[in-house]
Amino acid sequence: MQQRQTIRQLSLGAKGAIAILLLAITSGAVLTSCNPNTPETTVPTTQPTKPVITPKPNTPTATTKAETKAEIYLIEDKNGKFQLVARPVAIEQKATNQAAILEQSFNRLLAQSNSSSATNQPTSAIPKGTKLRSIKVDKDNITVDLSPEFTSGGGSASMTGRLGQVIYTATSLNPKAKVFLSVNGKPLETLGGEGLEITQPITRESFQKDFPL
């Protein structure tokens, strides 16, 4: 009987201890929530990440075809004296080497009108109908072959002028180049009815010396 009373007392004591412990925990939680000095616990929130946009390199919307500038030479009457004058011409982009550029230049030159110089405007002394048969460039040597119309008509002034037009146009890309001039595939030795003697190769320097305008 005494043993049962002891177990009962122990059980009551255990229950009391648990009750006191629960009361202490509850009181502490209430005090913590009411205490303004207690630091608040914040839960970090995840901010939405903005997408990073990498700028694209500038790309041209349109490209223009480049043109090569070349020159042809015409003659101009200044106070009764003929002078060679340069005229720039645009060459198509497909001309990628000197021979192709000069070919287009000569085609532009031979398309010029050989009208009278009385207008005091640059003109051409090359006879109408003259055609470029071929042009070759080998380093500093340029070979120009023209059709037979090149040698027809005109006096000594006209012959000198047309020869200068050909030499200067042929050397427009390389003023130091040497020109070998032929007509219908044969080297040109004399020009015109007056027999203008041609010593080849011809350079700008030798032309100015032998055929002063």
In whole angstroms, how far apart are the ends? 155 Å
The arrangement of helices and strands along the chain is HEEHEEHEEEEH
Q: Would you identify the regions where 5 or more consecutive residues have pLDDT less than 50? A: 1-12, 28-46, 50-66
Instruction: Give the overall silhouette.
Output: globular
Count of DSSP strands:
8
> Helix share of residues?
25-40%
Global mean pLDDT: 76
Q: Structural class of the helices, strands and pairings?
A: alpha+beta
Q: Approximately what portion of the residues adopt beta-strand conformation?
A: 15-25%
If you compute it from the alpha carbons, what radius of gyration comes out, rounded to the nearest whole angstrom? 50 Å
Strand order of the largest sheet: 3-4-5-6
For the sheet with most strands, the description reads: 4 strands, mixed
Number of alpha- plus pi-helical segments: 4
